[in-house]
Each structure stands twice: as structure tokens, then as C-alpha cells.
Design brief:
Bound molecules: iron/sulfur cluster
CATH topology of the largest domain: Cobalt-precorrin-4 Transmethylase, domain 1
Number of domains: 3
Strand order of the largest sheet: 1-12-10-11
Distance between the termini: 9 Å
Shape: flat
Radius of gyration: 21 Å
CATH class of the largest domain: Alpha Beta
CATH architecture of the largest domain: 3-Layer(aba) Sandwich
Order of helices and strands: EHEHEEHEHEHEEHEHHEHEEH
Number of helices: 10
Structural class: alpha/beta
Strand content: 15-25%
Number of strands: 12
Length: 287
């Protein structure tokens, strides 16, 4: 059996940067708290916890006066920064620069469209940390669009700005934009401005995963179960190769998936640590 690790798999730039910031801080021996999971991968999370990283929620902030708290790549809404400042918490802001720029663009659009009575829409997952941070740039007024029915809340007689959470799929964004165009026409509404803010580190992975899945007899896709990007990329792998299997840890591998003559490809999401891909590939090689 031949086992190959996808050379394009592994952490995206934003997640690598946040993990490096955490490790850098932990290496000084200080206490470090992180607001939410730093990465949607429980194996990597455990590794960082073993080095001293403590994962917290917003409810924990009041007891952390004087401590250091890391903001993960997804970013946070402005009120988190205000709360931390009031509580004398030192924030280590590891918001991905791409997310940070998106927050600024949304804030600017909101200020201009608010004056015209327009709407800012965010195509994304309700409650996802990045989306919460984005909605926070509009004083909570942006409308999160996840399904077509969510568009029923929008006033189509006014201008509409459509943005996307960075990890959403382009097909979904295009479908939402097409539906908005239709509704604007019916309502005699004004312009739609579509801002394609899907991260290229994510959208660029789709064709690579597709090509990699075609090249191998079996694909082992490694990702945390909470990763939306992982679920999406796995669906692409599965559409190209029916022998695609999703695992989060070595123990989930099953020997029956493989035949001695198979060429096996090991790939993963933008939140899958390279060491885990190696561990999984190493285990498969022993079958
Ligand atoms: S997917 Fe893109 S936007 Fe999101 S953290 Fe990674 S690099 Fe940043």
C-alpha cells in the first residue's frame, strides 16, 4: 500500500498565526486563556492545553482581571474588547488579518448603508464565532443569511450589501446573490453590492482536494468534527472518490477500508495540524 500526504493540506495562515502567538506566550511560562477553541481540532487543542492553554467562554472574563486572554483567528465583536479593557485584561489579538480587514469593510458599509436605510447581509452560520464578530461591527444590525428563507427579513426596496463569512462556499453565495437580485427586481429595489469575502485559503483548497481525491484509490480525510471547512472539503472529496473516509483521530481508522494494492491519500481541513496528518499516514502504513 502506498500512502501519500497531501502537500497542500494543513493549517491555513490565520490558524497557524494564532497557534504561534499562543505557543510564543506559553513558552514564557505565563498563564494564557483563549476565548473559545483556538482551532476546530480536538487533537491540536489537547496538545495546546497540555502546554498550559486554558479555553474559556465570555462568562469567565469577569474573574480574569489582570490575566492574558488570546483572541483567536475568528475575531471578536467590539464589545469583547471594551469588556476586557474595563476588566483590566490584557488581550493578545490573534484575529486573522483577513478577518480583521473584513470586519473593517463591514463596519464601513454599515455606516454608509445605515444612512440610506439599507441592509448589510452576512452569508454565514448563525452563532459561528466569526459571524458574531462580523455582526458586532454593525451594532448587531447585520442580518445573517444561512438559507433562502432568511431573506424574508430584508427590505428589498433599499440598497443591499452582501458579505460572506470567510469559510462559506462560493456556490452558496452565488445562489443567495441571484435570489436577492430577483427580489430586488420584484420590490423595485435598488442596487445589490456583492462582496465576495470567502477566504482564498479556503476556496483555493476545493480544486486541490478534488484533484487529490481523483488521484488516489482511497482518501482519508482528517478533520475535527466541529470544523465547517472540514465538512465542506470532505463532501468535495466524497463527490470525487466514493472511498473517502472522515476521521478525527488514529483510533477511528478501520483496516477494512484498505486493500494492499491501494494508493491512499491523506488530506484534511485548514484546521488540521500537519503532525496529525503524519500520525494518521504512519498508522495506515502499518496495516
Ligand atoms: S480561513 Fe482564511 S480568513 Fe479564516 S483564519 Fe484561515 S486564513 Fe484567516
Amino acid at each position: 500500500m502506498q500512502v501519500t500526504i497531501d502537500p497542500d493540506a494543513g493549517f491555513c495562515f490565520g490558524v497557524s498565526r494564532a497557534i504561534a502567538a499562543a505557543e510564543n506566550e506559553l513558552s514564557t511560562g505565563g498563564e494564557l486563556y483563549c476565548l473559545g477553541d483556538i482551532v476546530h481540532n480536538s487533537e491540536e487543542l489537547e496538545r495546546l492545553k497540555s502546554k498550559g492553554l486554558k479555553i474559556i467562554t465570555h462568562d469567565d472574563l469577569p474573574r480574569l482581571s489582570g490575566k492574558k486572554v488570546l483572541i483567536r483567528a475568528h475575531g471578536e465583536p467590539p464589545d469583547t474588547f471594551e469588556t476586557a479593557s474595563k476588566l483590566n485584561i490584557t488581550l493578545i489579538d490573534a484575529t486573522c488579518p483577513i478577518v480583521n480587514k473584513l470586519q473593517q469593510r463591514i463596519s464601513k458599509s454599515y455606516l454608509s448603508s445605515d444612512a440610506e436605510g439599507g441592509s448589510v447581509l452576512i452569508y454565514g452560520k448563525p452563532g459561528h464565532a466569526e459571524v458574531v464578530g462580523l455582526v458586532g461591527q454593525t451594532n448587531g444590525n447585520a442580518i445573517v443569511i444561512n438559507q433562502m428563507e432568511d431573506l424574508n427579513q430584508v427590505d428589498f426596496s433599499k440598497p443591499v450589501h452582501l458579505y460572506s463569512q470567510t469559510t462559506m462556499d462560493k456556490e452558496g453565495l452565488d445562489a443567495i446573490a441571484a435570489e436577492i437580485e430577483k427580489r430586488l427586481e420584484t420590490a423595485g429595489g435598488q442596487a445589490l453590492k456583492v462582496h465576495n469575502t470567502i477566504c482564498r485559503q479556503v476556496s483555493g483548497r476545493a480544486p486541490l482536494v478534488r484533484a487529490f481525491a481523483k488521484k488516489h484509490d482511497v482518501i482519508v480525510f482528517v478533520s475535527g468534527k466541529k470544523s465547517s471547512n472540514g465538512a465542506w472539503l470532505f463532501s468535495i472529496s466524497l463527490s470525487e472518490n466514493k472511498r473517502s473516509y472522515f476521521v478525527s483521530a488514529t483510533e477511528e481508522l478501520e483496516k477494512e477500508w484498505f486493500k494492499p494494492e491501494d494508493s491512499v491519500g491523506v488530506t484534511g481541513a485548514t484546521s488540521t495540524p500537519p503532525w496529525l496528518l503524519q500520525e494518521i499516514a504512519g498508522e495506515i502504513s502499518t496495516f
